[in-house]
């Protein structure tokens, strides 16, 4: 029997409790909370004649000018990490004479359709552990699609088992390449990836749509570490940046047999690709929801998303391809 979870009409996910995070992550989260406000932005510099006159007084040392002078000059932990990482990256790029996208705030550019596109992520960085959210469908919160016959498949647009139905939306190919970070970035062959995401209306099968289990599936990585899923482009629902969930298992038997997870994380989708897709029929609500959030304020990606931001190609009028290298 399928399990129906309750969530608001807007479809917002809940921020995971810090108690569920590893100790190191709890410490980082605590530091981040001390550095930034709940909107994840640095407060604007206060204005007013008294402050202006005080700060312009040449007889006052900088360290005596107070919080109003200091606060605008502070940067968040996340920004500091980004600046540090960016500095190292710039040196490497200068030596190689090449350029790349960063994960500090600028959205990735959607290139024209080509036979080959560069994937997001890299072989030397392990992708962050993220929440699976309240709608995993893996048995940890109600229903378990992983126990269904036919869950190992590349086309996840339709429901399986005794259910029938197909998710509508812009056709999207999701290609992930798993890389063994400890092994020097070599392809991770024989592993299993379970992915799931919301539909065009921002709903999750097995929960919001209890009589469907589409947009969920498992694939085994090949010798090149790749898995490919045929899907549709997910919506932007209220409170979250557009994303795709996934879990990595040692092999298919572990994925379908309640085995241990090697990694749980999420793929972030580039802003310009989202805007192009959401301009098409059926995604009308996503336009407003996308405008109300950002990668830098999202509850999952706000602490950094360089290794989670996918690269895309294609056109909403035909199909979109989403690619990400996943360091495990």
Walkthrough of the structure:
The chain has two domains: 41-75, no CATH class; 103-327, Protocatechuate 3,4-Dioxygenase, subunit A, CATH 2.60.130. The chain is globular, with a radius of gyration of 22 Å. The chain has helices at 23-35, 49-56, 67-70, 77-96, 252-256, 271-278, 284-291; strands at residues 171-180, 186-187, 192-196, 216-220, 226-232, 243-249, 261-268, 311-315, 319-327. The strands form two sheets. Strands 1, 2, 5, 8 and 9 form a five-stranded mixed beta sheet that branches. The chain has a four-stranded antiparallel beta sheet with strand order 4-3-6-7. 20% of the residues lie in helices and 18% in strands. It has 328 residues and is of the alpha+beta class. The protein is built from seven helices and nine strands; from the N terminus they run ααααββββββαβααββ. Residues 1-118 have low confidence and may be disordered.
């Amino acid at each position: 029997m399928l399990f129906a979870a309750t969530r608001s009409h807007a479809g917002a996910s809940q921020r995971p409790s810090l108690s569920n995070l590893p100790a190191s992550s709890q410490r980082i989260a605590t530091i981040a909370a001390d550095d930034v406000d709940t909107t994840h932005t640095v407060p604007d510099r206060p204005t007013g004649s008294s402050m202006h006159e005080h700060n312009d007084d040449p007889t006052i040392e900088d360290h005596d000018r107070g919080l109003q002078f200091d606060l605008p000059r502070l940067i968040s932990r996340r920004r500091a990490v980004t600046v540090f990482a960016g500095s190292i990256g710039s040196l490497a790029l200068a030596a190689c004479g090449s350029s790349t996208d960063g994960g500090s705030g600028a959205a990735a550019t959607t290139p024209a359709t080509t036979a080959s596109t560069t994937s997001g992520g890299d072989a030397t960085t392990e992708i962050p552990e993220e929440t699976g959210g309240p709608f995993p469908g893996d048995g940890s919160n109600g229903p378990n699609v992983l126990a269904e016959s036919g869950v190992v498949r590349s086309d996840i647009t339709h429901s399986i088992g005794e259910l029938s139905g197909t998710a509508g939306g812009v056709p999207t190919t999701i290609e992930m390449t798993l890389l063994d970070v400890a092994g020097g970035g070599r392809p991770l062959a024989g592993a299993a990836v379970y992915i799931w995401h919301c539909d065009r209306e921002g709903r999750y099968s097995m929960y919001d749509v209890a009589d469907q289990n589409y947009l969920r599936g498992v694939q085994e990585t090949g010798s090149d570490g790749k898995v490919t899923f045929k899907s549709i482009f997910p919506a932007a629902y209220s409170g979250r940046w557009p994303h795709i969930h996934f879990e990595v298992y040692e092999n298919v038997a572990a994925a379908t047999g309640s085995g241990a997870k090697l990694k749980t994380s999420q793929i972030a989708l580039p802003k310009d690709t989202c805007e192009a897709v959401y301009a098409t029929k059926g995604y009308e609500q996503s336009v407003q929801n996308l405008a109300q959030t950002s990668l830098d304020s999202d509850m999952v990606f706000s602490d950094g998303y360089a290794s989670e931001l996918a690269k895309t190609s294609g056109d909403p009028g035909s199909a979109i391809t989403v690619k990400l290298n996943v360091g495990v």
